[in-house]
Amino acid sequence: MKNISNNQVTPASKPVMKNIQTRSATVCITKERKSKISQLNSNRSSSSSSDDSLSSTSSSDLSYTSSRSSSEESANTLNVSFKKLSLSSNNFNTTTTKSTSIAATAINPEIIISSKSSEPSTITHPIMGPMSYFKTKRDGTNLCMNGFSYQKCKEMKNGIKWWCCKSRNKSVKCRIFLYTSFNQGDDDHPQYDFKKIVGDHNHQPDKDKLIIQKFKSDLKQMTQSPTVPPSIATFNELVANMKLGTSEMAQLPSYNSIRMSLWRAHNRNMPQLPTGINFPIPVEFSTTTDDEPFILLDHSYAKQTKRILMFSSEKQFKVMCESSSLYMDGTFAITPRLFKQTYIIQAHDIQSKNVLPVAWILLNDKKGSTYKILFKKIILLAKTRGYEFSPSNIMSDYESGIISTWKELLPQTKHDGCFFHYLQKIVKRMKKYGLWMHYLNDSNLYIWIKKMMAIPMLSATKMLEAFQLIEKAKTTDRKLKRFIPQLNKMLFYYK
Questions:
Q1: Cα(129)–Cα(132) distance, rounded to whole angstroms?
Q2: Which CATH number do you get for residue 340?
Q3: Do 21 and 99 share a structural domain?
Q4: What average pLDDT does range 287-304 have in this prediction?
């Protein structure tokens, strides 16, 4: 490729060449001569007789050789053509420049002129409402529009200037700018109003990618609150609110694929875990969404080494006090550090006729003395609010500490054992005494154990008689004699 300089042109053609250079026109001579010569032959045969200058120029192209002198001869021929063009027009404007480029190509098809004369387009039509956005990994804000994304460039006097996210891509370098108002919202929920956009994108939009980025951003924002942990329910709620089509739904990631990243975003806003039992409780964990108190009992005992925390709202506590039936149980797997168990109380709501959870209590142990402190505080708490905590019956497991507490504090209350816990206790004792595999394989032992499990299904007047028959069967049935030591241990639990 070779550029034509002013030293190779006639004085008459200098103004023309200067004007072309100011328009950033580049004149090139390619090296592939053979294909161009064949093209010249076809052009000459299809066209009628042209002017002498064109014919002479074509003849010089046909006689072109790879030597330097032939290239200079071809350039001089081009200068003659430029001279004729300059004489035909005194005002060489943009239109003349384009005509000159066409003429130069016609004179010598191996000379290609490229010009950058197009101006960037400007769009100023308004967009109703704030622009769509999504948060980046570094907590920045990117705007979305027509399948393109924009990141902040700089703040100006009248607003903010944004550039295309592909502007820093070395292979694309999209030079388009978006202008918006200043942020009308806050950092967590920004609002930018569209003003104008200048330039044209040199790449295709990617709406599917933006949908995924916005979906992840919105999901992280929903779960960043300390009181809203990530869950599949939150995931499904956001999917429903976005109202996506079938093809767009297929582009979304699954909950399991982004679960860990959601938890990382959630934990960034969580307070630091306490190291001692007497820790302060943040406001967001001690109030409801209606800004009502959610911790009704916070009691420290045993020289400030133990603590009881009861989470319940005023409405839930009222339901618990008015209910005639309560259902209680403790769990250990989900209990936070520094505590031993989470004790949950459910009450039968008279109005809705449903069983509702009404209290979540953190305890340091499962001793009878701890249960007594807890329910004494609950009875006192009910009196201060004008309620009476005196349920007709309660149902719980067979923990001795809770049973003794109810007998001492509320002797008129009837206590029922949970049938599930009853069966669970029998299975645990079978495994403890080595009877589990025999229970699965020996039909005689299987029937004897099933009779034990069915005792609670009888009326109270027949339970004792049924128990005595089962106890007698272990000695009279010779097929059960080999299990007598283990069966005696199981029956001892009932005595």
A1: 9
A2: 3.30.420
A3: yes
A4: 92
Convert the pLDDT of each residue in 44-87 to its tens digit.
544 444 444 434 444 444 343 344 444 444 445 444 444 444 44
As a whole number, mean pLDDT of residues 1-29 equals: 44
Range of the domain at 229: 211-267
In a domain, 274, yes or no: no
Q: Where does 3-156 show beta strands of DSSP type E?
A: 26-29, 111-114, 122-123, 132-135, 141-145, 148-155
The residue with greater pLDDT, 323 or 95, is 323
Q: For 90-139, list the strands marked E by DSSP.
A: 111-114, 122-123, 132-135
Structure tokens at 259: 């679960």
Task: Give residue-wise pLDDT tens across range 130-161.
Answer: 667 677 766 677 777 777 878 778 888 888 88
For 106, 420, 442, 451, the CA distances from 448, given in Å and listed in that order, are 108, 19, 10, 5
Confidence of residue 327 (pLDDT cuts 50, 70, 90): very high
Structural domain contains residue 334: yes
Residue range 196-209: mean pLDDT, rounded: 76
Residues 340 and 380 reside in one and the same domain: yes
Q: How many domains does the structure of the chain reveal?
A: 5
* DSSP label of 147: T
Q: What is the overall mean pLDDT for the chain?
A: 76
Dihedral (CA of 410, 416, 420, 426) sign: positive
- What does R_g of the chain's alpha carbons equal in angstroms? 44
- H or E stretch at 307: strand 306-311
The answer to whether residues 181 and 201 belong to one domain is yes
Q: Considering the entire predicted model, what is its pTM?
A: 0.57
Alpha-carbon gap, residue 152 to 161, rounded angstroms: 6
Same domain, 379 and 300: yes
- Whether 278 is in a domain gets the answer no
Q: Are 129 and 145 in contact (CB under 8 A)?
A: no
Q: Which residues pair with 326 in a beta bridge?
A: 347, 394
What is the rounded distance in angstroms from the CA atom of residue 84 to the CA atom of residue 106? 14
Q: Do 56 and 20 sit in the same domain of this protein?
A: yes
Quote the percentage of the chain above a pLDDT of 90: 36
Return d(Cα 454, Cα 423) in angstroms, integer.
9
* CA 455 – CA 493 distance, rounded (Å): 14
